[in-house]
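quick one: pyridoxal-5'-phosphate bound model?
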Amino acid sequence: MPPFRGGDPGSNPGTSTNKSSLNPKESIHDLKSYHYPGGFVGGTVLDIEAIRSDFPILDRRLPNGKQLVYFDNAATSQKPQCVIDAMSDYYREYNSNAHRANHTLADEATTALEEARSAIATYFGTSPDQMIYTSGATEAINLVSYGWARENLSKDDVVVLTEMEHHADIVPWQQLSKEKGIEVRYVPIDTESFTLDMQAFEIASQGASLVCVVHTSNVLGIRNPIERIVEIAHSSGARVLLDCAQGAPHERINFDSSGVDFVAISAHKMGGPTGIGCLLVKRDAMDQMGPFMTGGSMIKTVTTDGSTFQDGHAMFETGTPRIAEAIGWGAAVRWLDCFDMQEVHSHIHDIASWTAEKISQIDGITVYGDPSRNDSSGAVSFLHDTIQSQDLALLLDEGGFAVRTGHHCAQPLMDALGVPSTNRASFWIYNTMEEAQSFVRHLESVVARFS
Ligand SMILES: Cc1ncc(COP(=O)(O)O)c(C=O)c1O
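yep, here:
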C-alpha cells in the first residue's frame, strides 16, 4: 500500500481491511505482460502492427465505408484496450468513492487511485508528493496562476510567455495581469525557422518572476530548447512553468532532473482518458502555494468560524477525485512504459518529416514548421492558398482522414504566421508510413480536383 494523505478527517485512510478483496493492481493493472518484441518494421524498431492491435478504434470504418486514418493525435490520442479495460473494470467491479468510507469497495478504489498516482509520478521521474491531479493541462496552469502566482506575485512582477503558447498558457496570465497589474512579456518566434527567438528570450527573462513556455508547440511540432530556457530563467531568479501537454506523449519527461518548477500535463494526449492530468510541482514551490478550489477533501477541520487545510498535494485536490480517470491514466503510463520513447520519437519523426516534404511539393500548399528538424515531432501544419482549411478538412474526412482545422487555440501564433488557421496532421505511436502515403495521395487528388 503506497503512503498517501487522506481526505476529510474520519475518512478511510486507505488501509486495507479485507485481505481477500480484489487486488486491483494484480487483476487489472499488471500490464508488464504486454511485450513488444523488436524487429524492423518500416524503418523502426517498434512492432507497429502489435501496437495497433491494442487500439480497437483503429479498425473503424467511417459511415461512408472508408477506413479511418486518425491524424488528430495532438488534439487527443486514441486509447489502448488496457486503458478501456482498467476503467470499465473499476466501474464494473469496485466503483466506489475514494478516501472516505470504510468498506471493501472504498478501500479498493482508494488503493487503485493511489497506485495510479505512484505509477504516474514514477513515469514522470518524481515522487507522488510532488504531483497534483488536475482535470488536464489547462487546470494545471490555472492552478499555478491561482495557487502560486496570486500568493507570490504582485504589481509589476513580470511573467514571460512566448508567442507560440496555447491559449491555456496565455489567458490565465492575462487575467492575472488585469487583476494584479503584473507585466506579461511575449517572446516572439522567428517566422523563418519557426523557432523561439532565444536572444529575445534572454532579454525578456531579465527581472522576471515566472517563465511559462510550451515544451512542444501544438501547431509547429517544434520542441523548445527547454534545458537552455531553464538555465536562463533560473539565472534570472524566475521559476519555470512548462506546458508539456504535447511534450509528454512524445518524450519521457523526467521532472526531478529537469530542474523545472511546474509541469502541466494532460492524460488524454498520451493514451489516457479525458478529464485528468496533473501538475508536477517542486516541493519548495508547493510550500509557497495557497488553496485554489476549496471544499471537501482538501480540509483538515471546518467549523462555523473557519477551516484549516491539508498539507501538500491534498490541499489542491478538492471534492470527489477523478477515480476512473486516474486508474485509466495509470494503465496508460504502464503501457507506454513498455516502449523506448526515443524509438517512438524517431518513428513519428520519420512519418512527419516525410509527409511534410511530400505535401510541401503539392501546388498551393505551404507547411508551417520544419518537421525535418530532429527536435520537431508529431505535428504537420499546412494551408492551401485557395481551398479553405474547413473545406479541405471535410474533403480529407471524405477519404477517411481525421485532421484538425482552425487556430488550434494558438491565435497569437496564427497572427505571427499571418494566417487565420491551418490544417494539422498529427501523428502518434500507432500511425504508419502507409497511412501517410495514402494521405498524401488523397491530398494530391483533392487539390487537383478543387484548385
Ligand atoms: C500545448 C497545449 N497546451 C495546453 C493544452 C490544453 O490541454 P487540455 O485541453 O487537455 O487541458 C493543449 C491542448 O491541445 C495543448 O496542445
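The chain has 15 helices and 17 strands.
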